[in-house]
């Protein structure tokens, strides 16, 4: 299998970081008010997860640069926060590290990205708002080679293995390599299930998913798109790249992210893994202008606006037409 060693290391790193996030949340479950008043639990978990993943990547692939969301700037000024993160990291990592080593690992994520060579991209917690609510979040790690995503791994600790059984086992891990297909496994078993997108014949029979946050994606325009497509069922609103996971395994047929702000640039770590997993499961994805997502231009997707992902190229074309009409980008 292509990228076999990279895939194994990335899965181990994502699982370790996911467990760290879960332990932070569990420690706070009994003090829910602390979570609501104080955003620091998510901060601690963000830094801790980035330290763990970067330490493992650095051990196995010391020459690979990393584009990570977080940096250690705020930790230098706050000794108590730094010590909380360090305790957490040393609680799950096999080799104890010093505070200085930990901040160095976090700052390995400062690479600028670009078109040449290979680099990793990491979102230590994607969907921080979902994490704080005890709902969906994801740890997302991808490998980009010469501007193309070649491997994507996504750990979704709170996502049921089977969405129709919300009380059943939780913790879904997705991964894909380019040309190698997309797979799901649980957090506890290494048994792999090949996944594919839903077989949607007509857009009206499917369900779409979108962000919980109205500030991240226009829910009113998404509702107009759904109406044009004859979709009557309400959307699944879910935080984080877990949305890519549920499209990939067929729980939803469409994922829309319609820009709210003219100036916001989507980050590469928010889409790299999810995009490859959707494509390898049979889906298609572009931005709202129909352009492929361009991971070769730095830390953001500055050449793209919004996201349209669908279960197949045919459904994608229909959804894109509807999006463009709603956004006034094409004639009726
Ligand atoms: N203004 C914004 N527009 C779009 N996405 C945003 C914005 N601000 C933050 N995000 C990012 O959107 C993603 C959450 O996606 P969703 O809205 O689909 O749950 C996260 O990566 C979040 O960052 P973060 O990783 O810090 O949580
Ligand atoms: Mg994110
Ligand atoms: Mg994040
Ligand atoms: Mg963030």
Automatic annotation (TrEMBL):
Q: Which amino acid positions bind Mg(2+), per UniProt?
A: 69, 123, 125-126, 270
Reaction(s) this enzyme catalyzes, per UniProt: adenosine 2',5'-bisphosphate + H2O = AMP + phosphate; 3'-phosphoadenylyl sulfate + H2O = adenosine 5'-phosphosulfate + phosphate; adenosine 3',5'-bisphosphate + H2O = AMP + phosphate
Q: Name one Pfam family in it.
A: Inositol_P
Among Gene3D superfamilies, the record links this protein to:
3.40.190.80, Fructose-1,6-Bisphosphatase, subunit A, domain 1 (3.30.540.10)
Q: Which family does it belong to?
A: Belongs to the inositol monophosphatase superfamily.
Which keywords accompany this UniProt record?
Hydrolase, Magnesium, Metal-binding
EC number of this enzyme: 3.1.3.7
Please name the CDD domains in this protein's record: PAP_phosphatase
The record's NCBIfam families line, in alphabetical order, gives: bisphos_HAL2
- Domain of life of the source: Eukaryota
InterPro entries associated with the record: DPNP (IPR006239), Inositol_monoP_metal-BS (IPR020583), Inositol_monoP_superfamily (IPR051090), Inositol_monophosphatase-like (IPR000760), Inositol_monophosphatase_CS (IPR020550)
Q: Which GO terms describe its biological process?
A: phosphatidylinositol phosphate biosynthetic process; sulfate assimilation
MF GO annotations? 3'(2'),5'-bisphosphate nucleotidase activity; metal ion binding
Source species of the chain: Rhizoclosmatium globosum
- According to its UniProt record, this protein's enzyme class is hydrolase
Q: Which cofactor does it need?
A: Mg(2+)
Protein name from the UniProt record: 3'(2'),5'-bisphosphate nucleotidase
């Amino acid at each position: 299998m292509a990228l076999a060693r990279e895939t194994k290391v990335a899965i181990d790193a994502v699982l370790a970081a996911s467990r760290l996030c879960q332990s932070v949340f569990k420690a706070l479950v009994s003090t829910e008010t602390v979570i609501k008043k104080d955003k620091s639990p998510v901060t601690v978990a963000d830094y801790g997860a980035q330290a763990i993943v970067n330490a493992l990547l650095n051990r196995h692939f010391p020459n690979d640069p990393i584009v990570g969301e977080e940096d250690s700037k705020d930790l230098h000024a706050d000794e108590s926060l730094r010590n909380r993160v360090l305790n957490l990291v040393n609680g799950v990592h096999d080799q104890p590290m010093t505070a200085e080593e930990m901040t160095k690992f976090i700052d390995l994520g400062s690479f600028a990205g670009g078109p040449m060579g290979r680099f990793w991209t990491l979102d230590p917690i994607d969907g921080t708002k979902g994490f704080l609510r005890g709902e969906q979040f994801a740890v997302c790690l991808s490998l980009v080679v010469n501007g193309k995503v070649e491997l994507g791994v996504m750990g979704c600790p709170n996502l049921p293995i089977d969405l129709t059984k919300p009380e059943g086992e939780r913790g879904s891990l997705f991964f894909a390599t380019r040309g190698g297909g997309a797979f799901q496994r649980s957090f506890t078993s290494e048994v792999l299930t090949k996944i594919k997108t839903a077989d949607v014949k007509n857009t009206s029979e499917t369900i779409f998913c979108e962000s919980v946050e109205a500030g991240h994606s226009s829910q009113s325009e998404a509702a107009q798109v759904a109406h044009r497509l004859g979709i009557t069922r309400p959307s699944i609103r879910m935080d984080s790249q877990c949305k890519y996971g549920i499209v990939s395994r067929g729980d939803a047929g469409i994922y829309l992210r319609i820009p709210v702000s003219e100036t916001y640039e989507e980050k590469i770590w928010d889409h790299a893994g999810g995009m490859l997993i959707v494509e390898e499961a049979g889906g298609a994805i572009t931005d709202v202008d129909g352009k492929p997502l361009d991971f070769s231009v730095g830390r953001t997707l500055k050449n793209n606006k919004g996201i349209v992902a669908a279960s197949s190229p045919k459904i994608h074309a229909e959804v894109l037409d509807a999006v463009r009409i709603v956004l006034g980008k094409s004639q009726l």
